[in-house]
Amino acid sequence: MEPIDTRDPAAAAGAYTRILNWPLTVGYRYRPRQGCTCGNPRCPTPGAHPVPGPPNLRDQHEMIRELEAAPGAGLIIWTTRFDAVIVPRAVGMAAMVALDHLAHVPCLVTEAHATLLVLPATGRYAQRGETSAQVRSGSCQWIAAPPTHGVRWDAPPWLEGTSTPAALLHGGDVGLRLRDAYKTVRITEARP
């Protein structure tokens, strides 16, 4: 089994739709030195957000054609098959150290955030006691996935070297590790 190359838009779109059965659409495009095609000169996530309106879902072949016609377009996944728990990157990485001993937890990272994927409808359990964790859940919420500009997998949603989807954990199990991570990060940041 060849590794899935999430830097290749066609391979990534194929993996997300065919292997994981995730609802996928094309987002705005990132253009080097020109910014996001959304037109906002201060766009905080250039190319990494959906176009307005309801999800315009595509099958794998339509996605590949659309991606070829729009270089730099973001891949947007609607959160119907999982909940996305978004935390500051330092907290997410600290939690991933503990979670690696428990199970394989799919985790996306950007410069500022880590997004951990958990079972659908359980993300709210990861928020308990922590106000800075954001949860995206349901058919109206989304995440950007590689090869979207500025987004990469820290731990992909399939078992490494295979095309076997990783089993997702309950948000409560992830939340326990996040709470410990918040404490660790706060202690570390407080030291001179």
Largest sheet, in brief, is: 5 strands, antiparallel
Uncertain stretches: none
Main sheet: strand order: 7-4-6-5-9
**How big is the Rg?**
17 Å
Order of helices and strands: HEEHEEHEEHEEEH
Proportion of β residues?
15-25%
Count of individual beta strands: 9
Instruction: Give the termini separation.
Output: 48 Å
Shape: globular
Q: What structural category arises from helix and sheet content?
A: alpha+beta
Short description:
The chain is built from five helices and nine strands.
Describe this structure in words.
The protein has 192 residues and is an alpha+beta fold. It has five helices and nine strands; from the N terminus they run H-E-E-H-E-E-H-E-E-H-E-E-E-H. The strands form two sheets. Strands 7-4-6-5-9 form a five-stranded antiparallel β-sheet. A four-stranded antiparallel β-sheet has the order 2-1-3-8. A hairpin with a 3-residue loop joins strand 5 (107-109) and strand 6. 39% of the residues are buried.
Question: Which structural traits does this protein have?
Answer:
alpha+beta; 9 strands; 22% strand; 192 residues; 5-stranded antiparallel sheet
Question: How are the secondary structure elements laid out?
Answer:
Elements: H1 9-19, E1 24-31, E2 35-36, H2 60-69, E3 73-78, E4 83-88, H3 89-99, E5 107-109, E6 113-118, H4 124-127, E7 134-136, E8 142-145, E9 152-155, H5 171-190
Helix pairs in contact: 1-2, 3-5
